[in-house]
Design a protein that fits this description.
Blueprint lengths: L14 H45 L5 E7 L2 E7 L5 E11 L4 E9 L4 E9 L9 H4 L1 H5 L4 E2 L5 E3 L9 E3 L5 H17 L5
Parallel strand pairs: 7-8
Antiparallel strand pairs: 1-2, 2-3, 3-4, 4-5, 5-6
């Protein structure tokens, strides 16, 4: 049996060569990531606009025409029916949730001071619990004729008795609370809502 002895190279690569190699690898990786982001950005923006438009029509039932308005440096959307009568405003809002920022849009009828619909646009709440703010039909039903006067209140599930109360989702109280807080804060900042 013949054995071969492998010797370790006597000279190790210099630290500068290692740093240079790492820098090139990092630069190439960064360029690839930025290039892919730039290539997909128009598709992402188009999809977000499509989702926003669909949400506006959901939170303002009966809307056929949408008009962009400015309110305190914030874009809101006025919804009109086919006879050009104002149905209400679709108002984007966001705030902290349990996991991350919750982005939503709600429909507001200024003559009656009512929220007439609410859709979550983006949420990273806990799957199976907090994400029920997106899926729970009973929770979403709270926002179909919700009074904002004097302010929206969150109550334990099954204890809703007033038109300004929202039933919390059992097991997702923090996320439910976050949605109510976002709506109350947005209402306070909205000039067209007063």
């Amino acid at each position: 049996m013949k054995t071969e002895v492998i010797q370790w190279p006597e000279k190790e690569p210099s630290i500068f060569k290692l740093i240079f190699t790492l820098a090139i690898a990092g630069l190439l990786s960064g360029l690839i990531i930025v290039s892919i982001y730039q290539l997909t950005l128009p598709t992402i923006k188009a999809y977000q606009a499509k989702v926003l438009q669909a949400a506006i029509f959901k939170v303002l039932p009966g809307t056929t025409t949408i008009k962009k308005l400015q309110d305190n440096d914030k874009t809101i959307y006025a919804g009109y029916d086919n006879k050009s009568n104002l149905i209400g405003y679709a108002i984007p809002a966001e705030g902290p949730g349990y996991q991350d920022t919750i982005r939503l849009i709600y429909g507001y009828e200024p003559n009656k001071h009512l929220i007439i619909g609410m859709e979550i646009l983006d949420s990273k709440e806990t799957p199976g619990l907090g994400d029920r703010i997106l899926k729970d039909a009973d929770f979403k039903a709270n926002f179909q004729a919700l009074s904002v006067e004097p302010k929206i209140l969150l109550v334990k599930h099954g204890n809703k008795h007033a038109p300004n109360e929202v039933d919390a989702i059992s097991g997702a109280t923090i996320s439910s609370k976050a949605v109510v807080k976002i709506l109350n804060n947005a209402k306070e900042k909205c000039q067209l809502c007063k």
